[in-house]
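Hi C.,

You asked whether I'd gotten around to modeling the 158-residue construct. I have! Everything is below, sequence then structure, no commentary in between.
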Amino acid sequence: MSDDMLRQDRVIRPAHYILIRREVNDRELPGFEWDPEQLEIRIVWKGMYNKFFGEKDAYDRDSSNVRHDISLELKRRLEAGAIDRNEFTKKSFAMLENATDGSYKRIRRRRLDRQFNRLQVKDGGKGMAGFEKSARHRLKGIRFGLNFVDDSDDEMEQ
């Protein structure tokens, strides 16, 4: 595998996930250092939190805008008689779920593009589309699984 391919793979499929409460992401860890002698890792924690929650905020804004647009379009179609109430309800759930997936994909892709530019990857990772889809699918599975995790006592008190 070429150096360029290895850099792309590390961006698209990092060797770790960041999990904070019920949010998960596969971003890079700023300032990551591994000390095998001490069995320790070092990370720039503030940078990690800033990037993690910055991406979460971007996702929240994007998905909110998409959900708003979908809601307006479905309402317009209902009022015009193009769909009935049952169809409105069915389409609402399906379209809103697709909107959520689309928002995660768009926001993650923007981050990958910035990383590829910083690493000076020639084709912006376009040759790794299959790996990227696999990584997104893995993240989606982890997010789904988090719905079944009980909150800790500390979280319940807040």
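If it helps when you're writing up: The helical segments are 3-12, 45-79, 85-119, 129-146, 153-157.

Thanks,
B.
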